[in-house]
Amino acid sequence: MAYRTIELRREPGLLRVTLARPERRNTIDDVVLGELHAALDEAEGDDTCRAVVLEGRDGVFSTGMNLESAADDGGGASDGGAAFFGLLERFTTVGRVVIAQVDGQVAGGGVGLVAASDFAHATARSTFALPEALWGLLPCCVLPFLVRRVGFQKAYAATLSTQAVPASEAHRIHLVDEVTEQPETVLRQLVFRLNRLDGVVVGDAKRYFRGLSAVDERVRDHAVAEFGRLMSSPVVRRRITDFVTLGRYPWER
Predict the structure, then answer these.
(1) Structural domain count, the chain
(2) Based on C-alpha coordinates, what's the Rg of the chain?
(3) How many CB atoms lie within 10 A of CB 200?
(4) Which residues pair with 15 in a beta bridge?
(5) 127 with 59: CB under 8 angstroms?
(6) Is residue 229 in a domain?
(7) Under DSSP, is residue 218 helix (H, G, I), strand (E, B) or coil?
(8) Which residues pair with 19 in a beta bridge?
(9) Among 7, 186, 227, 239, which has the minimal tally of Cβ within 10 Å of its Cβ?
(10) What is the tens place of the pLDDT at every residue in 26-41?
(11) Whole domain around residue 166: which residue ranges?
C-alpha cells in the first residue's frame, strides 16, 4: 500500500518503519495509527522478518497527539484513545520484536511508543517528556505501558513533573535499554541474535509475559474512559483550540 505518514524499508531480518512527518513533529493521529498497524501486518506477513524498527528523523521521534486533529475530533476522544491504546497493546503482542530507535525529542504519546516497544535504544541528545498535565490532561493510555516498563513511582513522577529528561536518565529508570552514539551497530547486534530464534518464539514469549503483566482489558477500559473524560473538559478543549488557532500554549497567559 502507499503510505502517507511513514516510510518502510525491508532489510535482512527486519522491517524499518520511519515516522515521516517531521514538519508536524511526527504527531500521532488516526492516519498514523492505521499506517503503523498496516506496517505491523506487513511484518507479520513476512516469515523472514524478526523485528520491526521504529524511528523518527530530523531530531524528532514523536511528540504525541496531533492537536489539530484533536481540536476537530468533537466527541470522538474515547475512540481516539482506544485506537492509540490498541496500537500500544499490539506492540506487546505482535509476533515480531519491536525496537524503538530514538534520536531526538520524544513527548506524550511518543513516550508510549517507546514504552510499549520490546527494546529501546537512544542517542545522547534524545529527551523524553510527558507534558499532558500542562494541558489539564493525563497520559492515560501511555501510563499502563510506562508503569510496566519503569515502575509506578517513576511513571507517577514523570506525569506530575512534566519535565523532559535526558537519555541518561531514561536509561537509569529503564525506559531506554541502551544509550549509544552507534545505534545501527547496537541494532545489528540485536537482530543478529534474533535471527537465530525460531519464528514462533517471539509470539510465545509475548503471550507468556502478557500473563504476568497488569495491562489487561480492565486497565484498557479505565485508561480509555479517563482519557475521554479529560478530553471532553471545556478547559482542555479551550486550551487545545487556543493552541491550534492562536499558537498559544496553556502556560502562556
Answers:
(1) 1
(2) 17
(3) 9
(4) 10, 52
(5) no
(6) no
(7) helix
(8) 6
(9) 7
(10) 999 999 999 999 999 9
(11) 6-181
In a domain, 196, yes or no: no
Buried b (16+ CB within 10 A) or exposed e, 116-147: bbbbbbbbeebbbbbbbeebbbbbbbbbbbbb
* CA nearest neighbour of 139 among 120, 172, 170, 115: 115
Residue 126 has which C-alpha cell? 534524545
Here the cell at position 47 is 516469515
- Angle in degrees, CA 121, 122, 126, rounded to 5: 160
Is 218 among the domain residues? no
Reported confidence tier of residue 75, pLDDT bands at 50, 70, 90:
low
User: What would the pLDDT profile of 183-207 be if each residue is shown by its tens digit?
Assistant: 999 999 999 999 999 989 999 999 9
| The three three-digit cell numbers of residue 165, written as one number | 529528561
How many Å apart are CA 202 and CA 206, to the nearest integer? Answer: 6
Q: Please, are residues 20 and 31 in contact by the beta-carbon 8 Å criterion?
A: no
- The answer as to whether 23 is a domain residue is yes
The pLDDT tens digits for 135-169 are: 999 999 999 999 999 999 999 999 999 999 999 99
DSSP of 141-179: TTHHHHHHHH-HHHHHHHHHH---EEHHHHHHTTSSSEE
Q: What is the C-alpha to C-alpha distance for residues 162 and 129, in angstroms, rounded to an integer?
A: 6
Give the Cα separation of 83 and 201 in Å (integer): 27
Q: Region of 129 please: left (phi>0), alpha (psi -120 to 50) or beta.
A: beta
Residues in the chain: 253
